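Progress note, project year one: complex with 4'-deoxy-4'-aminopyridoxal-5'-phosphate.
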Amino acid sequence: LGVNRTTVMNAYNELASEGLIAGHVGRGTLVKRGYFSQDEDSFEQDTPAWLLGLAAGEGAVLGPDARVLSELVATGGYREVISLASGTPPKELLPAEQLQTIFMEGLSGAREEALGYVPVEGLLSLRRGLAARMRRRGVNVDLQNILILSGSTQGLGLIGRFLLNPGDEVVAELPTYIGAIQTFRALGARVIGVPIDSEGMRVDLLESVLSRRNPRLIYTQPTFQNPTGASMSQERRRRLLLLARRYQVPIIEDDPYGELYFDGKEPQPLKALDSRDYVLYLSTFSKMLAPGLRVAWLAAPEPMISRISLHKQVFDLNTNAIGQWAVTEFLRRDLMDGHLVMLRERYRQRRDAMLQAIKTYWPAGIRVNYPHGGFHLWCRLPGDLRARSLVREAAQERVAFLIGEPFYTDGSGHNYIRMSFAAPAEEQIEEAVRRIGHTMKGMLKR
Ligand code: PMP
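Model obtained:
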């Protein structure tokens, strides 16, 4: 029985997309620690001085936690691994047919818009379309408030460069999105965690941080937070905005999941309550359409948009035009709302399958959130069970998920795991949860 090549490539791509491994010509694949492997032997004798400088420097954006996933590959084998690790849309939910039609029917008539250089702020029609969509969600913005980005990741980096100096502090939920932690740390900032509960960031605790320290930025995901799935209550949203004003600290609202809700009414962004211009709103088409498009946007006060655009111009001149054009056409042809209705239904079914399987197969004593949208289930393990040990043992059962620790900025979280229900179909979710439950029961008996 050979290892299936596609499965190997999928596992490889997943690790690479999470930034956990890197290929080096002639040296095979190395688990990333810093810019280079720490393995002395991997430096060649004639490495130029400037490169040695980089190797000795502090490029280490990702910590050693990355290795846990790579051990999965080492111990679990590649075959039949069901991965609940990465939060990306699965291929059957990517809008390939619609995009194909758009490209076939429209591309030749839109050469300049789709294939030329475009304004750094983004295609006018896309900015206009996004402003209209945001107004429908209760946010008072116009096209001059919108900047198109190469992923919201670029937005985090640009805002960070604009507002932070090395040594500055950023407040974020504890736990929070790994990519945001990495971005702020890469800019030399310190991330201060404020605990989150089922009603979002503990804004009461935020106040004491703001009064004792001097953070330059608050980073929050008020809706279906990654990793906890929690949403901030209206009361706390109002209080958060009051505090931002009192202490003069701008807020990044990172909202990739707000339109992927499963129960009840569509949640409004925090920015809908922001009458005083404290919120820099980021969202993305990565979860709603396809991450490969690399199209996202920032909604912010106009002076901020024009200044940040200058920074953006330095880095990439403009977000890829063909992706912007495709998204614009998707909106213009009125395909977006139907696509979202389909996604909500499918992801809701997957969430329900995961919750049901947990009820059926897991031992008692585990605390699990009930996410009303987004991609993630967040679990506190029972007793002394450590996530690191669980992920290793579960790898033997050919199932993958993420440990909680990298989502924390204070070294805690050893007994949490994050499972994404976005990618596998329901039967696979059930099987994965069953395998994890089986592993847990075995560990608890010892
Ligand atoms: N923010 C959060 C909270 C995310 O979960 C992700 C994707 N995992 C991103 C930002 C990055 O999105 P993009 O593809 O737009 O860079």
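DSSP finds 15 helices and 16 strands in the chain.
The radius of gyration is 22 Å.
No further modelling is planned for this target in the current period.
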